[in-house]
Structures are given as C-alpha cells and as structure tokens.
Automatic annotation (TrEMBL):
GO molecular function: metalloendopeptidase activity
Lineage: Bacteria, Pseudomonadati, Pseudomonadota, Gammaproteobacteria, Moraxellales
Protein name: M23 family metallopeptidase
M23ase beta-sheet core domain ranges (all copies): 166-260
Species assigned in the record: Acinetobacter wuhouensis
Domain (Peptidase family M23 N-terminal): residue spans on this chain: 30-81
Cited SUPFAM superfamilies: Duplicated hybrid motif
Lineage: superkingdom: Bacteria
Length: 266
C-alpha cells in the first residue's frame, strides 16, 4: 500500500522526505540534504567546513545545509573516503516588496555600513564555529513562539523598490512582549543589538547547527548560558529593520542559512 505522502511525492507535489528524528530532506538552495553514510565515512566537509554527522545508531547521516546561493546542479561534499555528490533541484522562491520608513535601512550611511560589517563578522564567526554535540540523537525542534506564519524563507526582497539580500529566516508575526523560547536545547553563543537584526540571540545546538532570534524587544539570556528546550530566551519586538512586530527565526547548518520549517514535523 502506498501512503498518501508517497503518492504525493510520486506526483511531484511534495519534494521532501523525512527520516524519523531528523530534519526533512529538501535538496534545493536553502534546503537540507539528509544523506545516509556508508560505515567507513565518519567525516564530511563542504568548502573546508565540517558538516554535521549524526551519532551511529544503526545508520549514520550527514545533515548538510545547502547555501541559498547554490545554483541548480550537482554539488560535491568531501569525506574521509569517497566524495559524495548531491543533486540540487530548482525551486522558485516568491518575491516580496516592503516599505520601510527609515531610508537608512535601504541605503545605510558609511558609519552604519561600518557597524554592519563588524556585526556581520561577529555573527559569521558564530556560524562557522563547530563544537562537539551535547546530544546522542539529533535534537527535536519545536516552534519558538506562537503565531500563524506563511512561508517567508528565501523570498527575494525589495526594500522601497531596491533589491536586497533574500530572506534568510522564517517570520512569525506576534505581538510585542510575547515569549520566545529555545526550540531545542543549546548554549547561548551570542547576544547583541544589531543594525538590521535588532536585539538578537544566537544558540549553538552543536556541530555547526545554530539558531537565531531577531527583532526582540527584550533579551532574557546571556552569553555562555545553557538552555533547555522551552526555556524563555527573550520577548517578541520590532527592533532593527522591520515593518511590524514579529519574530525572525533563522537556522544555520555548516554556515548555510536553511529553511527553519524543515526542522518542524510536517
Ligand atoms: Zn525576517
């Protein structure tokens, strides 16, 4: 018997699959490849950066974040054995036109660009870090705050008519002051009040898996703090470049920003 999910997949209506406990496999720019490894493969790298590898139970997997800038076609990962090739499929992200009142957020002044460069480096150092996992099984993720959301990851964005970087996270509209919780256990590796992202918390979940929470009105944690799943990290706000109150939730794997929805059960 074919399941409904299998039938939809055969019809090409959905293109994701899921191994129990792991993110959904969706091989597109901004997606994730969940790759079963042969027994002799213990290390996987992409562009010199280590890729997350799950602990061996009966089967070990590489969980690889596909950068948003990846062209359609074949991509190669290095391992301690044979290279692995994966096929990156075409995926059309929607466009979004936004109007912000403060023109500095569209064309920042030199001092603001300098500030942004410092902040980008700080965040990049976190995204490229690779710490030992504190888990035996890949962490299960829950939603960081309540609220209805649409599929906003990857959107091509135009601010006041000018094209800017694609949207690297998922926006959850919510009222100012609503609690934001850690979607999985981890360690707070960064907090800041950034030019574009506003008040922000970054959590390291191990092996280059980093989550990010932006535009907060208040930060309730500090750097180095251990968080359990469900612990409050801050409150929803509208700090930084926003058009209204919401939580921006970002997920990064091997320094690639990927669609946070792939971590939630479908
Ligand atoms: Zn956002």
């Amino acid at each position: 018997m074919l399941s409904i999910k299998k039938i939809l997949m055969l019809c090409g209506l959905i293109t994701t699959t899921q191994v129990f406990g792991l993110p959904q496999d969706s091989r597109r720019a901004g997606g994730i490849a969940v790759i079963p490894l042969t027994q002799n493969v213990t290390e996987v790298k992409y562009n010199g950066l280590p890729v997350l590898v799950t602990q061996p139970n009966s089967q070990r997997y590489a969980v690889f974040g596909i950068p948003l800038s990846t062209p359609v076609g074949t991509l190669e990962l290095q391992t301690n054995s044979q290279p692995i090739q994966i096929e990156v499929k075409d995926y059309k992200y929607a466009q979004q036109r936004l109007t912000v009142k403060n023109q500095d957020y569209v064309n920042p002044k030199q001092e603001q660009l300098d500030r942004y460069a410092r902040e980008a480096k700080e965040q990049n150092d976190i995204y490229t870090s690779f710490t030992a996992a504190q888990w035996a099984d890949f962490p299960h993720f829950i939603r960081p705050t309540a609220g209805k959301f649409s599929n906003s990851f990857g959107r091509k964005r135009f601010f006041n008519g000018e094209e800017r970087a694609p949207h690297s996270g998922l926006d959850i509209p919510a009222p100012v002051g609503q609690k934001v919780i850690a979607p999985a256990a981890g360690i707070v590796v960064g907090t800041g009040d950034y030019f574009f992202n506003g008040k922000t918390v970054l959590i390291d979940h191990g092996q280059g898996l980093i989550s990010m929470f932006c535009h907060l009105s208040q930060i309730k944690v500090s750097k180095g703090q251990k968080l359990s799943q469900g612990e409050v990290l801050g409150l929803v706000g509208k700090t930084g470049r926003v058009t209204g109150a919401h939580l921006h939730w970002g997920m990064s794997l091997n320094n690639a920003r990927v669609d946070p929805q792939l971590f939630l059960s479908p």
